[in-house]
Amino acid sequence: MRTDPAPPRPDAAAWQALRALPEWARELGFADAGFATLALDEDLAHLQRWLDEGLHGGMDWMRRDPALRAEPARLRPGTLSVISARMAYPIDAALAQQVLGDATRAYISRYALGRDYHRVLRARLLRLARRIEQAIGPFGYRVLADSAPALEKAMARNAGLGWIGKHTLLIQREAGSWFFLGEIYSDLPLPAQDASAAKNLCGSCSACLDICPTQAIIAPYRLDAARCISYLTIEHHGAIPEALRAAMGNRIFGCDDCQLVCPWNRYAQKSGEADFMARHRLDRAGLLELFAWDEAEWLRRTEGMALRRAGYARWLRNLAIALGNAPPSDAVRAALQARLHSDDEVLREHLLWALQRQGAA
Q1: Positions at the binding site for [4Fe-4S] cluster
Q2: Per UniProt, where does cob(II)alamin bind (predicted)?
Q3: Separation in Å, CA 226 to CA 60, 232, 313
Q4: Within 13 A of 164's CA, how many CA atoms are on the CB side?
C-alpha cells in the first residue's frame, strides 16, 4: 500500500503511455485490464436491498459498513480511480461434468484446485502497479484481490470488462466467466473507460436459475446466500440445513453449476496459468480418498490453497454429506462409522445423517 503525498499529475506523454495498460496486464498473465469509473450508487443500493432482505445468510460482517464498498476513497484515502483487471483460470468443462456425474468422486469448485488466487493476483497487481510507475512516475495506490470490502464486479463492469449476469457473476462476451478479478486503487484521475463491452447480453436466458441445485438464485440478479452451495460449504459454520443436503450431491467445496451451464462460457479463454493447475488430482479425487486424510495430511496437502478457508472440520462435514449422497456401499458405511468417535457435535450429526442415507442401522 502506498500513501505518499499526491505527486504531480502525469504529462500528456504519460497519459499516452497508459493506453498500453491492457498490454502490460497481459504480459503479467492477466486477460485484460481497464480504468473503472466510481459511479457505484445504484450498485450500493442493490447491495443494501440484498442485505435488508436478509439474503446474506450468516455473513453479518457484510452489514458493518456497506458504504466502504461504494466509496473507494475510504479504503485508500485519495483514491480517484480504480484499475480493474481479470485473470482467467483453467477449466476443463467436460471433466467437471464427468465428476459431477460420478457420485463417488468429490467436486471442488474449479477456482480452488490450485494455488490460492488471492496470493497470485495480489503479487501480479503489485507488479502491474510498478510497471505503471515505470511509465508515468510514482503514484499512490493500493492493490486488492478480494481482500477488502469492494464492489469488484461493478467496478469491472465500469471498466468495460463485462456485465453482471443473472447468476451475479461477471461475464465477458468473448471470455465467459471463468476468471478472477483484482483492483488497483489509485490517486490518478484516469479517463473513463469505454464500457460498451459491459452491455448486458443475458437476454431471456434462465439457464443459471434453472440449473442451481438448491434454487439459490431466487430471481435474476438475486442470490439467496443461505441456499447457495458455495456459501454453505465454505462460509457457513455449524450444521447445514437437512433440507438442502441431498441437493448438494458430491459438491464439497463450492459449486460451478451456474457457470458450467452458461452459454457464454462456450467462448471461455484457455488458461495455462501454472499456479492455478489442479494439485493432488483434486479435480477428480474420490470421496473416500479425501475422507481418509487426517488433519496433518489435510494441512500438508492444502498448504497455500483456498481450500484452507473451510477448515478441516467443515471439510469433513462437507465430505460426510457427499458420502451420504453416494451409492450405498460397505466401504462408505465403514468410513463414516470410523469417525463417529469425533468430539465435534456438528460432524457427528452429519455422519449419522449420512449413515441413515446409506441404510445403516
Answers
A1: 202, 205, 208, 212, 228, 255, 258, 262
A2: 69, 146, 170, 181, 230, 255-256
A3: 12, 7, 19
A4: 17
- Sequence-distant (≥ 6) Cβ neighbours of residue 298 within 8 angstroms: 312, 315
Burial call 187-215: b when 16+ CB within 10 Å, e when fewer: bbebeebebebbeeebeebebbbebbbbe
The answer to whether the CB of 310 falls within 8 A of the CB of 233 is yes
- pLDDT in single tens digits along all 361 residues of the chain: 555 545 445 566 667 778 899 999 999 999 999 999 888 999 999 999 999 999 999 998 888 877 788 788 888 999 999 999 999 999 999 999 999 999 999 999 999 999 999 999 999 999 999 999 999 899 999 999 988 889 999 999 999 999 999 999 999 999 999 999 999 999 988 876 666 667 999 999 999 999 999 999 999 999 999 999 999 999 999 999 999 999 999 999 999 999 999 999 999 988 989 999 999 999 999 999 999 999 999 999 999 999 999 999 999 999 999 999 999 999 999 999 999 999 999 999 999 999 999 997 6
pTM beyond 0.90: yes
Q: How many CA atoms lie within 13 A of 251 on its CB side?
A: 25
**Residues designated as active site:** 146
Q: Cell numbers at residue 232, please?
A: 454453505
Look at residues 201, 187, 340 and name the one whose alpha carbon lies nearest to residue 264. 201
Spell out the domain ranges in the chain.
12-91+116-198, 207-357
The torsion angles phi and psi of 311, rounded to 5 degrees, stand at 80, 155
